[in-house]
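Repro:
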Amino acid sequence: MELCICCFCFFLSSVFAFAVVVVLRLSCCHLLLAGRFGLDSDGPDEAEQFASHGGSDLALVLARCRQSGEALGEPDLRFPGNLLDLVRFCRNRVVLLFFALTTRCRAMRQALNPVMAKVLKRLHYPLGVILLCVRWYSAYPLSLRNLEEMMAERGISVDHSTVHRWAIKLLPVLEKAFRRSKRTVVRSWRMDETYVKVKGEWKYLYRAVDKAGDTVDFLLRAHRDKAAARRFFEQAIKQNGAPEKVTIDKSGSNVAALEAINAELGQRIVVRQIKYLNNIVEQDHRAIKRRSRPMLGFKDFRCARILLSGIELMHMISKGQMKSGGAGQTPADLFYALAA
């Protein structure tokens, strides 16, 4: 009997503690939103105020929460003074939390493609904040701690390691979406490789552009040999079709890779080794090096490959290689369109 009473008391104390935690967290979130967007928590047009700040999804949440509070007969959710009021107060707060989460998830699923919604399933920040951080990190020479400070100046507390995780999760999905809407390139290519430091060792980033300067493809490899060059050419041909001419440097491994591909395809790709014609791709390396320099080297090969793909993605968007849905769209608009 005493054991049952102890278990029951422990259960009640656990429920009470959980209710108090929920109340405190929701109260803090409400105060943060009110302080961040300048909302009047006692005013009747809270959702309209938030919508004017660009928070359309959360405006729906606030309106739904207010309606649920009125339906429960307690629109005034001040902290209670007795135990019965505390139970009702916690019940209302839990219901509001349920409506907020379900409305936010439903709006996200309707606005995003299934792949992007699956990636964002366990990310709790607003989608606009996540995409903004990932775009800045990929487009500009900023470190993770620079982004942390910049978001703090805007009233958003986010750790630099969180931004890194966002980039690792989102960039592969965005790159895959970009390849489906990438413009075709000219069939005269300039190919070269550049050096990238990963875990204190130099790795090789194979890159190719056409004669107009548009990026054909890229690939990060651990070694500079015939197998790596052939893997790059096979990937580029699969994505863009076989070229007519390829201009390379004096590297023997690149020549051997192209000869093997010519024998396999049964067609002739003209190989040119003219140094001054490769100035286009060598100058194009600078945009990638300028962006990766603040990273002070990569710590992992997989992360290096993903982050370099994000840098190449923003570089291609800025060069106008994405099929835009309308006239006058900026590179930022095109980047955000990839998540739709």
